[in-house]
Design a protein that fits this description.
- The chain has 194 residues and is α+β, with helices and mostly antiparallel strands.
- It has two domains: 53 residues, no CATH class; 108 residues.
- The protein has seven helices and four strands.
- Strand 2 and strand 3 form a beta hairpin.
- The protein starts with 12 loop residues before the first helix and ends in a 14-residue tail after the last helix.
């Protein structure tokens, strides 16, 4: 494969990739007719290295499916409840988000207060949510006590952030249910939208 990618292969090409990645407001779609392993690693440099790494993120090695006994039981139950509500759910999304769910065009990253691994408190409470929101995700941190005490309410709260409305409820009932679950009522603007 030819390795001439214009400005990306010259000094400063890294900045072009960084600029492209940080300017998308909601989403970015990258269309490519080649995979990163099609590029000769000895011939690419500057921005092409970053492009290759970016493409590698889109084509990860398939991870073996976790057995039900290996997943966090509380997150697993929340995932099952969200799927029952009609959301698309993935546990341990790309090894970075403990629970990711989507409904239509909206996606949410859910962290459990016990997850976070080696993150500092500042990273877990301020930096991580800010970065995920800038990347277009809605973010919600679930306290494990709330999840243990009332998992259905937590599932409805998470689904409500994505715009889920339970069947058979009127707008007033939905607003009251959302307020009771800790979400904003339907008439007020969401603070997590861009």
């Amino acid at each position: 494969m030819l390795s001439n990618f214009g400005s990306l292969g010259r000094p400063g090409g890294e900045r072009l990739i960084a600029t492209a990645m940080t300017r998308a407001r909601r989403a970015m779609t990258i269309v490519s007719c080649f995979r990163p392993d099609d590029l000769d690693a000895t011939r690419i440099k500057y921005g092409m290295i970053e492009l290759s790494e970016l493409l590698a993120l889109e084509h990860p090695e398939p991870a073996p499916a976790a057995l039900p006994s290996e997943r966090d039981p509380m997150l697993g139950e929340l995932a099952d409840r969200l799927e029952a509500l009609g959301l698309n759910v993935e546990l341990d999304y790309r090894g970075a988000i403990p629970l990711a769910a989507s409904l239509g065009e909206r996606a949410i990253a859910v962290d459990l207060d016990l997850s976070g691994g080696e993150q500092s408190l500042r990273d877990a409470l301020r930096l991580r949510p800010t970065v995920l929101r800038r990347l277009g995700w809605h973010y919600h941190r679930v306290h494990s006590f709330d999840l243990f005490a009332d998992p259905e309410r937590v599932a409805l709260r998470v689904a409500g952030i994505l715009g889920y409305e339970p069947d058979g409820e009127t707008g007033a009932e939905t607003s009251a249910a959302a307020e009771a679950a800790g979400a904003q009522p339907a008439g007020t603007p969401a603070t997590t939208l861009f």
